[in-house]
Amino acid sequence: MSAFQPETDQAGADLERLQLVYGNFPFMLAGATLAACVLVWVLYGQIPRQILWGWLGLVLIVSLVRHLESRAFLRGPGKRSAREWIHRLEIGTLFSGVVWGLAASAFLARGDEAHEFLTVLVFTGVIAGAMTSYGAMWRCYMIFLAPVAGLMEWRLLTDQLPLHYVLAFVNVVYVTVVAYSAYKTDRTIGKVLTVTAENAKLTRALHYEATHDALVDLINHREFNARLRAVTGGAPEPCALVFIDLDRFKDVNDRGGHAAGDEALRRVSEILKRHVRASDTAARLGGDEFALLLPGCPRERAEQVATTVLRAIEEFVLHWEGGHYFRVGASMGVAYAGAGEADAAALLRVADSACYAAKNAGRGRIEVRCAVPLREPSHFELEALRPSS
Question: Which residues are catalytically annotated?
Answer without folding.
Answer: 288
